[in-house]
Write the structure tokens for this entry.
Amino acid sequence: MHIHVVSSDGEAKFWLEPEIELAKNYRYSIHQLKEIELLVEVHYDELIAAWKQYFGS
């Protein structure tokens, strides 16, 4: 499972399993990546549930 983060500042892909991990980064700063990763951690359960609902379990 993974998510894509896209904004005017850049793009990134994070693996959600087996653990949260940056897969790709294009133009986000280290500071921005840390903020994004924190948001992923806070909303982890919601992201997993949405992924399973969209793609199936």
